[in-house]
Amino acid sequence: MFDHILLRGAQGGKFLLRGELNPARAMERAPRKLSLPSAALRGRWDAAYMRAAQPSTLVDVSVMRDDDDGYLRGTAETHETITMQFAEQFLAQLDDVEGASSWRRRPSALRYHLAQCPLELVPALQADAQELLGAACAAACSSLGRTTQPLQTNLWFAIGATTSGLHYDAFDNLLLLLRGRKRVLLLPPSASAELAPRPAHGASANHSQLGAAELASLAASAPTPPLTFELLPGEALFIPEGWWHQVESPEEVTLGLNYWWDGPSAALLPTATVRKMSS
After folding, report:
1. Fewer CB atoms near the end CB (10 Å): N or C, the chain?
2. Cα 243 from chain centroid?
3. Are 245 and 239 in contact (CB under 8 A)?
């Protein structure tokens, strides 16, 4: 039995109807940490190399004031999204004068977060990832029972500390860290009722309405504490479809990739879509 049902939203996006978590499936599909040999890719992707890759490619970047808390709540009122040239504008926010091992943010009143950027927008980086990480990624995915190619590979690049709002994805997710540090808090789909999810047919339907302080209070008082993982470069985290997660990137510069596959509930999409249209 599936824990949640996948539906297609009004703009073609996907969200889940939250339901009770089957304990046996929870054990089978629990988040877990893996190690991927990514040193070669990390070594190649220094700032100068990345600036030379598709320098004028346009990407959408979330921008926040530096005096905000850096908490990305998934709502338009908490940050601005602007279109920037990948190298000539976005990467220009890096101060890397001391070399690739000491990337820092240039002094600025703003923080920049390139989130969920399809790697295919930067073909040179996409080719690098396939060349230097493809075999390791395939082996890791095989260990997770995934035998197909990912639906999408995304680039995540934060210049300035950020924290994602609590949310879930309608895909199985493998998050790989290449630079910096990440702390990930996770709660199962069965916790949904306590997490104040946004209305299923509204904007950002996969986000919680809880702020950072409310989530910390809930986590501290929960009968079963949330799972927490800390990722360092070369480490990856499998986040099953439907699991709520908050991702903190506390360093000045954080770089990572993630891979998405359809989760088990994708098999229900045609039936669920019919149910939605007929309701």
Report:
1. C
2. 12
3. yes
Residue 220's Cα: distance from chain center in Å? Answer: 24
pTM of the model: 0.82
Structure tokens of 82? 């602007």
Q: Please identify which residue in the block is written with the tokens 């539906």.
A: 7
Asked if pLDDT for residue 254 goes beyond 80, the answer is yes
Cα-Cα-Cα-Cα dihedral of 136, 140, 143, 146, to 10°? -110
Lowest mean pLDDT among 27-41, 140-154, 202-216, 253-267: 202-216
Residues 6+ apart with CB under 8 A from 191: 222, 244
pLDDT band of 85, cuts 50, 70, 90: very high
Q: Say whether pLDDT at 133 is over 70.
A: yes
d(CA 225, CA 153): 31
